[in-house]
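RETRY 2/3 - previous attempt timed out on the joint model. Re-submitting the same 470-residue input unchanged.
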Amino acid sequence: MGTGAEVAVACDVRRIGSPVDKLGDEALLAGLGAGDEELTAAFVRRFGPKVYGVALAILGDQAAAEDVSQAAFERAWRHGSSYDPRRATVGTWLAAVTRNLAIDAARVRRPTPVDPSALLEAAGVVRVGTEAEVLAGETAAELRAALRRLPPEQARAVVLCGLAGLSASQVAEAEQIPLGTAKTRIRTAMGRLRVALADPGGCDD
Amino acid sequence: MTDQGCGEVSDLLAELALGVADAEGRAGALAHLEICAGCQAELRSFADTADALASLAPEVEPPAGFEQRVLSTLGAARRGGVPAPAGTPATCAGPPRPSRSGGSLRRTHARRPSGSPAPPGRGPAGWSRRARHRALLASAAAVVVVGLAAAGLALSGAGGKPAPAKAVLTGALVSGHRHLGQVVVMRDRSALVSVAVHGEAGVAWVRCELVDAGGKAVTIGKFALSDGSGDWAAGAGAAAWEAHEALLVDAATGRVVARAELAAS
Ligand SMILES: [Zn+2]
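RETRY 2/3 succeeded.
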């Protein structure tokens, strides 16, 4: 990102008077990288709830989640050039940036108990996706559908890691299972989710 | 454990991609990933799944004033400001600076309503939670490297080709005869130093130092141990190239807690 072309496009659009909030995610990220105040503000406005939501799911503490969110935006500014539009949307990239920072921050905190069923529900996994979502082939809808198809114990293990940032040993403790079992569940679930995303229409088991 | 093969590493890829692999496993796997294009590609593929999963977290409206605080942090960083140095109390974050535009980036002093007090045992006295987070996040290099490595994005630098094997130094962290963990030093663009330590009860904060052949020590950073364990990484800059030994020093007493002799792996 951060190419001159994207910034130029963004500036042109602004010159003709369109609100910057209508710009695409990548244009806003380019504006952030280029130091444009207006585009930066729009970027923070657009992605604030997502970044904060990811941090809060892992840290479970508002103040800590805000600190990590701030750091995530700062990192997006400094390292936006590592964003690769072929691999993920800006939102997904930013979610991953935030997750990594939040997990680092969580290492010095006491783990807070997490309810995997509540996580699944909050992530919209329990609700069956609308036909439109499934037809649109959205990654998130496909992933939710794949999570629903997992054996429940695997789905719990993988959201405890992937959404709450728990380590395998913390999953073992939370689920009261041996560490090896936790690791196997995480690995198997991730393998199935990966297959489902690679081949959404296919049968993964 | 210093020399993990594809088998062991592939068992860990899902946890690595999720950013939750434990300290020891991650340090060893990073060394292998640096030289194994096959495992790198696998990790990338798992990372895409893990990132999509992270993105399922429900959006939550941040507290009032969030946007202004983010924008003033960004504004300060852009003007060449760096995050507050480790140990600087949050209340000394510096005087307000005029915004160029006088508009939306103006620094606000409205702080979020203070949340619940920090639980006991979460850091040395006098360190605000914010300052500690800053300390943790301050080394921009640590943020970059840990983040990218966990996401499997930048293990091989800009060219996308695996770095030569001699670019990785590893060493077992020992105290007397006790094995306490591992240090990995990347002698590449990232200059990453990754430290995994466990079983050093009674020490809250350690300083990581790299020592060159002449005995000169450079402090790379400081990190917290939780129940005697910790897992940390930071960029070492030029010191990575000169490093012969890594030391972990108790930040409170200055005692050398553990040392690792570094050798090409
Ligand atoms: Zn391999």
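The domain at 1-112 of chain A is CATH 1.10.1740.10 (Rna Polymerase Sigma Factor; Chain: A). Closing ticket.
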